[in-house]
Amino acid sequence: MIFDVAAQSLASQPVLVPLEQLLGDCTGSRMPEVVADRLNLELASRAAAVCSAQALRLEERDGFRQLLLDYGKCTGCGRCIVAGGGAVRAAASGVPCGVARTALLRRWNIDTGTEIAPEDAALDSAGKQIRSLLGRALNIRQVDAGSCNGCEAEIGALTSPYYDLERFGIHFVASPKHADMLLVTGPVTRNMEEALRHTYEATPSPRLAVAVGACGCSGGIFQGSYAVSGAVDTVIPVDAYIPGCPPTPAMLLTGILKVLLGK
Amino acid sequence: MSALIRSSRSSSGIPEALALLRAGNSRLVSIFGSIDDYGALRAHYLLDVDRREYRLFTGHIFGALPSVTDIVPAAAWYERELHDLYGVAIEDHPNLQPLVFHEGWPEGVHPRPGLLNAPPLREYRFLKVEGEGVCEVPVGPVHAGIIEPGHFRFSVVGDTVLHLELRHFYTHKGVEALMEGRQVPDGTMLAESVSGDNSFAHAVAYCQAVENAFGISVPPRGRALRLIGLELERILAHIGDFGALCGDVAFSVPAAYTARLKESLLRASARVTGTRFWRGLCRPGGMHRDLPSEGLLSLAECVAETARDFAELAQKCLDTPSVQNRFESTGILQRNEARALCVVGPVARASGLRTDVRRDHPYGHYRTVTVEVPSHSIGDVMARARIRTEETAISARLIAQAIAEMPSGAVAVSVPWQADAEGFSAVESPRGELLYYLRVREGRIRRCHIKSPSFQNWPALPLAMPGNIIADFPLINKSFNLSYSGCDR
After folding, report:
1. Which run of H or E residues covers position B347?
2. How far apart are CA B140 and CA B123, in angstroms?
3. What pLDDT shows up at residue A194?
4. Which of B440, B436, B464, B439 lies closest to B452 in space, CA to CA?
């Protein structure tokens, strides 16, 4: 009966995860990170050779060899961690979320074993405008533009009692007309391209568009298919990117808050 | 896995399949196309004969293919897909409309542009329901919740639905074509992204097809680990679906509570395996890595506790009169309708068809355990909710048993995949029978067909709608809980 259900729920222990434990956390995401001081040419070559997503690759630039890791393409298959012999490991934190596309790229100088400082890529002004208008309250319209539904499973988990997105004043709304932010998963398929464009047009300005997941950020493993148009930013303007396959709820929350609060 | 019996005489393959379907003791599992080593077009009919063996019938296509939709309504979408993806003309199809390609699809873009015996269809016409007071309500592809895209066209009088027509394939990503040309081990990652919430079932089905093709047997510990992953995925799906059903009748406390139960299992998975959805763990030949015994024990504890908690909650919900009022007699799929459309999985079992791949065609570790298969006869939302509740308990017992009797030893063997082979595999995914057919040439995938339970079950949803009010559609749709991406691929 209805009160028995309420009683069972009230008898349970609270599970809410404190914000400090969520920000920047990416355990369980299978995203890799490079251990700079263990890096050498042999390990870097081996790790890059097994990456079928071409997220990890060797490049020669400015006269030295560098290892480039594009989180926007990484599907977390874990092969580079096995092949990288200690120079690549599973990341527990620090994967960039809610940033510009160029900031999803990290580079290491293989000869010196040091990370090359990323280019400064500030987000545009829509975030500031929404902040000044609304404070922290944010309405999100989620749009699946062709994903495998892995991202949807994780976005759905944001409203669970563990993460409780609404405690920050952030809500998922039913119409783009009520939204400040579109959270778009991809890859954008040919059959969804037009619907995505209409949804973006129906969202009032100022508006933010955030591309979610490897497929949303880069087309992911579906890039090149006859049925796929490409990454979300090939169809609508995108303000920020959240990588992952799929991104964990903590990564999504980190990204959304970063876009909203600008830090 | 029960062996796949091939009928390879290409002149008689198709007539034999059609004769068996006409005889009525075979269930249509899939129809799909392929191109043989000499560039000729073929059709494959996969049947489950007497629920004992899967049989594959193959034949070359000369001219048009006769439609079998009038005998087996379940063939309708398969034939339309064959028309769209392989340009095969279908003779006497009762509703030959574009399935895969929509109006905005660019001219000349096609997976197999060289073939096209039949030109692609462009225009799609919805059935026009006419009469006094009949209105059309279009819904989607962009929906109100955090769900996948698809289009539903309702014809209603007042609140009452007269007719529902589906238009899907918005998430068509061309996965089967993307598989082609890849090296065999690289197919697993694509399989995991066919339907993200069933990624482990897809990974296992793909890997089993490879193992079947190359005659490889996975070591016992690898098989047991796969069972744990598969049953955990089923528990997650069923608990999530039950919660969503509660949410759709505005019973938000159990909806939140099940979200919490589900998340506790995902977090336990992340702690033990390093991945929330068991992605990247399965590989042809077994598992990528072993899971530590103490981790498995803690997972067993978490599963047992969650299952107990859920059983208690579900019972209380289903005893609540306002829930009964909304669930009972809503969205009925009759047994004969389910049978005609060869419906699979929990939806079939709620409509009186006691079918389950784990029991009918056991594979892997399921060959050594007994799987109870519950069924209900009414076929309403309540029956589907009960099936999910009962199956959660059964899955939890299977996990407990597998962990208690965990075999020791290796979790994988190597697969000599750089050769020619043909293989096939069926898995009972949380949504029902999932099937991979694979043909390999010199270690590269030549053809990979994925038959997902959602492709099979979507056409049954419109049969459960007439007479219901449109406000009950989210509830009925959720009780089927089909994957759009899994269907569209």
Report:
1. helix B345-350
2. 18
3. 95
4. B436
| Tokens at B58, concatenated | 């193959």
Taking an 8 Å cut-off on Cβ atoms, the answer to whether A151 and B101 are in contact is no
Checking DSSP bridges between strand B432-441 and strand B444-451, what pairing results, if any? antiparallel
Q: Write the CATH number of the domain with boundaries A126-261.
A: 3.40.50.12280
Q: Is A11 at the interface with chain B, CB within 8 A?
A: no
Partners of residue B317 in chain A, C-beta under 8 Å: 5
B197, A77: Cβ pair inside 8 Å? no
Shortest Cα–Cα distance, B73 to chain A (Å): 26
Residues in chain B closer than 8 A to A156 (CB atoms): 146, 259
Minimal-distance CA residue of chain B relative to A75: B189
Comparing CB atoms, the residue among B196, B313, B319 nearest residue A153 is B196
pLDDT tens track for B377-412: 999 999 999 999 999 999 999 999 999 999 999 999
Interface membership of A225 toward B (CB under 8 Å):
yes
- Is the peptide bond preceding residue B149 cis, with omega within 30 degrees of 0? no
Predicted pLDDT at B104: 85
Cβ(B54)–Cβ(B361) below 8 Å: yes
Q: How many CB atoms lie within 10 A of CB A118?
A: 15
Q: What are the start-end ranges of the H helices in B107-185?
A: 175-179
Say if CB B421 and CB B214 are below 8 A apart: yes
Report the C-alpha dihedral over residues B324, B326, B327, B333, rounded to 10 degrees: 140
Give the closest of A12, A172, A199 to B146, CB-based: A172
- Burial (CB < 10 A; 0-12, 13-18, 19+), residue B39, is exposed
Tell the residue number behind the tokens 């998340």, with chain if given: B263
A188 in Cβ contact with A146 (< 8 Å): yes
- pLDDT of amino acid B140: 85
Contacts of A2 in chain B (CB under 8 A): 251, 320, 322
Nearest-angstrom CA–CA distance, A260 and A183: 13
Strand, helix or coil for residue B413: coil
What local confidence, expressed as pLDDT, does residue B143 receive? 87
Q: Is A3 on the interface with B (CB under 8 A)?
A: no
Residue spans of alpha helices (H) in B99-198: 175-179, 187-192
Strands A105-109 and A240-242: unpaired
Question: From start to end of B50-183, where are the E strands?
Answer: 53-60, 65-66, 90-91, 134-139, 151-157, 160-167
CA angle B408, A84, A24 (to 5 degrees): 90
Contact flag B149-A222 (C-beta cutoff 8 Å): no
- Dihedral sign for Cα B69, B75, B76, B82, please: negative
- Decide if B17 contacts B45 (C-beta within 8 A): yes
Other residues' Cβ atoms within 10 Å of the Cβ of residue B295: 16
Residue B2: the pLDDT is 47
Cross-chain residue pair A160–B260, CB shorter than 8 Å:
yes
The ranges of chain B with pLDDT < 70 are: 1-11, 114-116
Interface test with B, best of A149, A170, A178 (most B CBs within 10 A): A149
Cα separation of B192 and A229, whole Å? 21
- Cβ neighbour number for residue B219 with a 10 Å cutoff: 18
Question: What residue ranges of chain A have pLDDT lower than 50?
Answer: none
Q: Name residue, tokens 């072993």.
A: B290
Instruction: Judge whether B217 and B211 are in contact, CB under 8 Å.
Output: yes
Residue of B16, B479, B115, B399 whose CA lies nearest to B231: B399
Of B238, B255, B235, B327, give the one whose Cα is nearest residue A6: B255
Closest among A162, A161, A181 to A170, alpha carbons compared: A181
Whether B66 and B55 have beta carbons less than 8 Å apart is answered as no
